[in-house]
UniProtKB/TrEMBL annotation, chains A, B:
Designated gene of the protein: rex
SUPFAM superfamilies reported for this sequence: NAD(P)-binding Rossmann-fold domains, Winged helix' DNA-binding domain
Function description: Modulates transcription in response to changes in cellular NADH/NAD(+) redox state.
Full protein name: Redox-sensing transcriptional repressor Rex
Organism field: Vagococcus hydrophili
DNA-binding region: 20-59
Gene Ontology MF terms in the entry: DNA binding; DNA-binding transcription factor activity
Length: 220, 220
């Protein structure tokens, strides 16, 4: 299965769906379902079955027509692709309400994803421990990230601080950043930034609700 | 411009980018920039200029080759599309850490988006006021949503409670739901659900970081 690791040809849209497929396949497996047809899987995860079949085709012959997909095998393939056997040690920057919510949840359904340390500049927070994660002084961030060889960071700092923080963590060796500040940031080419922009998501949702469900309401 | 409201032909991917375009155009306008070329805009928002031109083409002739786009005009068009002049009254269900973070932020850069009420079942929270938003007993949710004619809800409740809450708000007239529980929910056809799945975003980010930046590291 080693060849599956080199997935340079997988479209970004497919890569985005793999974690979702993986989660649902694990749920199926835990419920004793060992085989599933693409149209059943489609209904369950609300993704068109043509999309599922096209996505799965990137990983070779994973199913047979009329028989469906072998659930344990798919789990093995996706687990391998996502490297879920290897712990990902994550640093969180910004331990406000959103940061606290992320630490308290700490991706507990995915045991390999671990927020191991948090950083903040608030003296009230520094030294505190939240769900076994210690909040450290942001002044020590660069040094600790280097020492711990952390390459993934979640940022929940205000937009005004985001560029400064990102420059510092990138200098310390971070290459993957999940950022909750919507402002686009400058990073070197080898660094991946994923933006979670809640306002945009909400505006898109409302736009869809108004224009596709009740078109008449929007013309009042 | 009335005809722009009926955007049944706009692809979902384009609709998703409109709020982002809108935010950056407002920033440009506030900085005194009244005209921008697609390649400059592209660099600023990190979206390919071909995508921007294709997206904008859905809204008619918004720019001229070599001249660039008229910023105030685009703002007017997108504001109209997004209905930003009309207040959206939003209810939040689940006032834990994540809910509190959302109430405290309350989309303050978009004055038309307003969380006006929150619901929770925790007696410690009921009756409290966070950033001028009162936390009400979840037992009153259905009645209050109907009374206030609220159609948009943000849900930050545990996965195990999500279906029950969604059934109740949909019965009360809600048609747009931003949901932070990753589990797919059953809703009637006229209801839009947008899932914010932080674990999936993080897994996708790490997958990209490992496979596209440092492919050699993943084969150790």
């Amino acid at each position: 299965m080693e060849n599956l690791k080199k997935n340079h040809a997988i479209p970004k849209a497919t890569a985005k769906r793999i974690p979702l497929y993986f989660r649902y396949l694990k749920t199926l497996d835990q419920s004793g379902v060992k085989r599933i047809k693409s149209n059943e899987f489609s209904q369950m995860i609300q993704i068109p079955s043509a999309t599922i079949r096209r996505d799965f085709s990137h990983f070779g012959e994973l199913g047979r027509s009329g028989y469906g997909y072998d659930v344990p095998y798919l789990i093995q393939v996706f687990s391998n692709i996502l490297n879920t056997e290897i712990e990902k040690r994550i640093a969180l920057v910004g331990a406000g309400n959103l940061g606290k919510a992320l630490i308290n949840n700490n991706f507990r359904k995915n045991s390999n994803l671990n927020i191991v340390v948090a950083f903040d500049s608030d003296p009230e927070l520094i030294g505190k421990t939240i769900n076994d994660v210690k909040v450290e002084d942001i002044a020590k961030m660069s040094e600790m990230i280097k020492k711990e060889s952390i390459t993934t960071v979640i940022m929940t700092v205000p937009s005004s601080k985001a560029q400064q923080v990102i420059d510092e963590v990138v200098d310390a060796g971070v290459t993957a950043i999940l950022n909750f500040a919507p402002k686009r940031l400058r990073v070197p080419h080898h660094v991946q930034v994923q933006y979670i922009d809640l306002t945009t998501e909400l505006q898109t949702l409302i736009y869809y609700d108004e224009n596709y469900n009740h078109p008449d309401l929007t013309t009042i």
